[in-house]
Specification:
Strand content of chain B: 5-15%
Largest sheet of chain B: 8 strands, parallel, barrel
Number of helices of chain B: 23
Helix content of chain A: 25-40%
Strand content of chain A: 15-25%
Strand order of the largest sheet of chain A: 2-1-4-3
Number of strands of chain B: 11
Largest sheet of chain A: 4 strands, antiparallel
Strand order of the largest sheet of chain B: 1-2-5-6-7-8-9-10
Radius of gyration of chain B: 22 Å
Helix content of chain B: 40-55%
Order of helices and strands of chain A: HEEEEH
Number of helices of chain A: 2
Radius of gyration of chain A: 13 Å
Shape of chain A: globular
Distance between the termini of chain B: 51 Å
Structural class of chain B: alpha/beta
Oligomer: heterodimer
Shape of chain B: globular
Chain lengths: 97, 495
């Protein structure tokens, strides 16, 4: 049953694959969240078996979406910008829904 | 005036339009809900005499943090041997430590409105109870209540609402925003859980937007016939509307939900089975079960004779047993004990797997800011067993070796729903619990503790830091950096 996140199942799959790619390429754990006031609600990304105990950085991408990561700044700036851009696109699509 | 408020024509019309039938039928299996009364009774009967070997095998399964099957829970519920119960009590405590470490999270309830269209026989707020003074907090009053709670050191609340058009989803979201916006110096409420009536998916989506913690709806009793008897009229008389309240919440995207039963309405063994089936149904539909399970017992309420007459009241001994079996049956879910229970019972049952409890509790409307000295039955839903201050409760917990946690980290960095539940099942979350418990306890000791409590708290902190150094050497330097920063006045650092 589809849960009421603002992401479609295709987008969730896309984000899951992106998190896997980031992990493979940079060794960095990321997961994607929907921002609801103080709540950052899990949407997709790093799985429990990969998680390390580390202070996580919460990076807001837009009013609605964010990324949580253990080593966000270890991802090259250019790639970080690409991730932000992808999420920005999703945010725009969401706003238009 | 009061009667018009709870049963005037416009209120009745509102109540007639709350239930969306399609939002019940979509979850049914061939027209049946997931509570099969006869099957539960049969399972309890078939597992009447479990062998010690079988019981120990089931305990082992719980210790591996695996959810039990109904026949296994039924077997545990039927244990008679005192020695085996002692083994189960021990195991329940061990399960809790493996999943959540030795921390206890504290919170306070904030009753925002006691207007209600329902007529639950056991409830002091039922609409026919004319002795109760009806009141709904204004947003300014909510702010004052929140300030009082922040000033006593709370970081987590559960906001509570009756079922009424004047406390509908719009009022709920307004009050939640007010709570989140209220600040006292550096202090603020970091997580608000919600205990509110069942809603439609459309309304739950509105609620979700505010950023709530856990959304709780208790079934009260899972036994169909008893449910019908104790909820004779209005919205709450619809068993299935309530039973699927949290399925709708999950579908609306509220991914942390809390279930509960009011023990004393029907046979306690049946209710434990009901809680397990509820857990299983949520897991089947959404891949994740409840975030918390609550197990309140019936308590006296003003002008509510039903409570004295109930033949299913749960003894203290059976209360210990039901907590133990819930802990072993759903090892990874949070368990909430409330101040309904008196201090001596709280002390006795916390070691059986409780993860959260309330303190400095007031359940009258507007009673935190009024700072009233004693309970007044006509202002409350029921009478509390424990009205001790947060400081007193924390000191007692510390003396028993527990660290009080004000952690609200998980839901503010995406460890929610299935994500956090998977981490709990794998024993990963306990380390976050430990680190964040120490950091938030440090904050509280420095900002709010009495000298006496601080002294006991320091001992617990030293013990915890030693354990972190030994068990998590790789994270220890970072942890100590955070710890020092908090000692130097920074706040809200977390893992």
């Amino acid at each position: 049953m589809e849960k009421g996140t603002c992401f479609s199942s295709i987008e969730i799959k896309k984000l899951t694959n992106l998190a896997k790619l980031i992990k493979k390429k940079y060794g960095v754990n990321v997961w994607f969240v929907e921002i609801l006031g103080k709540r950052w609600s899990y949407v997709a990304g790093q799985r429990v078996e990969d998680s390390s105990i580390f202070p996580y950085e919460c990076v807001p991408i837009s009013e609605r979406f964010g990324v949580v990561s253990d080593r966000w700044k270890q991802i090259p700036l250019e790639s970080r910008e690409q991730i932000k851009s992808l999420l920005d696109d999703m945010a725009r699509e969401y706003e238009q829904k | 005036m009061s009667t018009q408020l709870v049963s005037g024509p416009s209120v009745i019309e509102w109540a007639n339009n709350v239930i969306e039938k399609d939002e019940i039928t979509r979850y049914l299996d061939d027209g049946r809900d997931f509570i099969d009364d006869e099957k539960i009774k049969k399972l309890l009967h078939q597992n009447k005499h479990p062998t010690p070997h079988k019981v120990r095998h089931i305990i082992e399964k719980s210790l591996c943090i695996e959810r039990l099957e109904p026949e296994e829970t039924a077997a545990l519920l039927n244990v008679k041997d005192r020695g085996l119960w002692d083994e189960m009590f021990q195991a329940a405590g061990e399960v809790k430590r493996r999943v959540y470490d030795n921390r206890i999270v504290t919170f306070a309830p904030l009753y925002c409105s006691n207007l209600c269209v329902n007529n639950c026989l056991y409830c002091g707020f039922r609409k026919e109870n004319t002795l109760v003074k009806r009141r709904r907090l204004t947003l300014e009053e909510v702010r004052r209540e929140t300030e009082a709670l922040i000033s006593s050191g709370h970081k987590r609340l559960i906001a509570v609402y009756g079922e009424h058009p004047l406390s509908d989803v719009n009022y709920i979201t307004d009050t939640l925003r007010t709570i989140y916006e209220t600040k006292v110096g550096n202090g603020e409420i970091r997580r608000v859980n919600v205990n509110a009536p069942p809603m439609s998916i459309e309304k739950l989506k509105i609620l979700k937007e505010v950023g709530i913690g856990t959304f709780q709806v208790f079934q009260e009793t899972y036994h169909h016939q008893t449910y019908k008897r104790v909820h004779p009229s209005s919205i709450k008389s619809n068993y299935r509307w309530r039973l699927y309240a949290l399925h709708r919440a999950m579908e609306a995207g509220v991914d942390d939900v809390g279930i509960g039963a009011l023990f004393g309405l029907y046979d306690w063994r049946f209710e434990v089975m009901g809680l397990l089936y509820h857990t299983m149904s949520l897991e089947d539909h959404f891949g994740v079960g409840p975030h918390t399970i609550s197990f309140p017992r019936l308590e006296p309420a003003a002008n509510t004779p039903f409570i004295q007459e109930s033949k299913y009241k749960v003894s203290d001994e059976d209360f210990k047993k039901l907590i133990t079996v819930i802990r072993l049956s759903v090892p990874y879910t949070g368990m909430i004990l409330t101040a309904r229970e008196p201090p001596h019972i709280r002390k006795e049952v916390i070691p059986l797997g409780v993860t959260q409890t309330d303190a400095s509790t007031r359940i009258g409307i507007g009673t935190y800011s009024a700072r009233y000295p004693k309970q007044e039955a006509e202002k409350q839903q029921f009478l509390l067993g424990d009205t001790r201050s947060l400081d007193e409760v924390i000191k007692e917990l510390a003396l028993a070796g527990y660290i009080t946690s004000f952690c609200t980290a998980g839901y503010r960095c995406g460890r929610t729903g299935k994500c956090i539940m998977d981490m709990l099942k794998k024993g990963k979350e306990r380390w976050f619990c430990k680190l964040n418990a120490v950091l938030t306890f440090r904050e509280w000791l420095d900002d709010f503790a009495s000298e006496e409590t601080k002294e006991v708290g320091e001992m617990i902190i030293r013990k915890e830091i030693k354990e972190i150094k030994e068990k998590l050497p790789q994270i220890y330097p970072k942890f100590m950096e955070y710890y020092r920063r908090i000692e130097n006045g920074e706040r809200d650092l977390f893992f």
